[in-house]
Amino acid sequence: MTRSVSEQMDILGRGIVPRIWQDMKAPLEAKLKEGRPLRIKCGFDPTAPDLHLGHTVVMHKMRQFQELGHHVVFLVGDFTAMIGDPTGKSQTRPPLTEEEVLKNAETYKKQVFKILDPEQTEVSYNSSWLSPMTAQDMIRLAAKYTVARLLERKDFRTRFEQQRPISVHEFLYPLLQAYDSVALKADVEMGGSDQLFNLMVGRVIMKEYDLPPQVILTTDLLIGTDGHMEDGELVGEKMSKSLGNYIGVDDPASGEDGIFGKVMSISDELMWHYYEILSAISPEELNTRKQGHPKEAKRALALETTARYHGQAAADTAAADFDRLHPAAGASRGVPEDIETVELGIEAKKIFVSKVLVEAGLAKSNGEARRLIAQGGVQVDGQRVAESSEELAQGGTYVIKVGKRRFRRVVVK
pTM here? Predict the structure, then answer.
């Protein structure tokens, strides 16, 4: 079924950084009104062999474009990966060898089609047009942009001000990425919010080659699995294999390192961030889940995420395996049958775990409760509480364990 321009705009605007959507909404609408399939470009430098969920955020938006009848170009930056884009880094990123890049690229291609429709995806390698460029071609490209404008990029500017080295080849990276858009005649280029500068350079360079500037759409970065609340805000580094705070597309469904278990291990606050960025459910359904028990919402997210990469049957098996390893409240392994039950009446919809410990008689003060949590000595329904800011929802029954032998069944009303 062909969607109207208005319907397409409603779908494509979801998950785009609001400021970028405000600037690019009109140009995108104008291109859609031309009534032709747009060319959607997104480049990935194969700097590591595996993709994680952070990479998939923009891929799901690409899949939406496909489902609306547009042409997606999955660009493998095999040439640019050998330069290394230092985005967000304070120093030069070491380039990869050609052998490393090609090996990683083949792995990427296998994983990306877990999301994109292979029959509607054009896979291109930027070495096919960048490698044949002569020194004269490269100089002509470099002449189309100034050093002053390159130094507007935050990581370049910071390193320049701190007198850290910047190699000349690093200045070429955003220009080469921009030339990719020229070679592909891209209508739209997508990327994470950390790619904004490079994408904007693409708009400038396309005009230099007498092409209409591409629309750029950026998505929020996915916070890694160690994200947490700090002073009332969700904070954390973006998902990264080097930081170990990732969930891999090729991770198994079950087990300690499986997708299901990793999703179940994140904090409740981080869970809602993942819902907003990764989940395919409607805004209405998301609101319904926010009104319910967070544990059930997290389980539903873990099932959805696992099924996406391994199928529903594997997701159901992973859930059953997880339940055996982490029994539900009231049936936890090693939990006495006659533990004391405490009922807590609260006015708000949630209550801090640290306060529950005090009111349930498991800690003498809020300070002691916070220390117990920081030391890793508190579990709720078999899962360790990582932050004192974690909360329990009204309407739930929880088995709380402190240390090795102290238990309470807590009913939050």
Answer: 0.70
